[in-house]
């Protein structure tokens, strides 16, 4: 299968994986799942979904493409870019247009577009020559981003993007 077709499949695969990851903590609420999956509906907690789904997809690509490509590095960069797009676009829409009310259609549209744009970037990164050093940097990057997200679950900043307006809590609300 050529890379362009694979990237189209990837957009839908990442979107579906994200939908599944969204509910893991709800289904299995414990310390371990709180580190990797969103514990509330705050904008920030949803970064865990983005990072996790891109990581899962990058690992799948690593298996499929073997050592031919920088799949982990491309996954890290595209996941961070996707999280940035979501924060940049969704945050003002959520506060200014939706007035902190959830709208699943708007959320899905923004998320799908962000994934699509990120996968275009991913495509161009995967076309570069393989570099084992970039893959090692990506592993460290995924670990650091995961640690940051986990830390901020238990120590959220007093900012609106960390606040769950439905439950009226920051983080776990403890």
Helix amount, in percent?
55-70%
Summarize the main sheet.
2 strands, antiparallel
Quote the beta fraction: under 5%
Number of domains: 1
Give me the Rg, rounded: 16 Å
By helix and strand content, what is the structural category? mainly alpha
Count the beta strands: 2
How large is the count of helical segments?
7
The run of helices and strands is HHHHHHHEE
Mean residue pLDDT = 93
The residue ranges in which pLDDT falls below 50 over 5 or more consecutive positions are none
- Gross morphology is globular
* End-to-end C-alpha gap: 49 Å
How are the strands of the biggest sheet laid out side by side?
1-2
Structural summary, described in words:
- This protein has helices at 3-21, 24-27, 31-36, 47-65, 71-97, 104-126, 132-154, and strands at residues 163-164, 169-170.
- By secondary structure, the chain is mainly alpha-helical.
- The protein has one domain.
- Helix 5 (71-97) packs antiparallel against helix 6 (104-126).
- The mean pLDDT is 93.
Summary?
The protein has seven helices and two strands. With 174 residues, the protein is mainly α.
Can you lay out the helices and strands and say which pair or pack?
Layout: H1 3-21, H2 24-27, H3 31-36, H4 47-65, H5 71-97, H6 104-126, H7 132-154, E1 163-164, E2 169-170
Helix pairs in contact: 1-4, 1-6, 4-5, 4-7, 5-6, 5-7
Defining key terms:
174 residues, mainly alpha, 7 helices, 70% helix
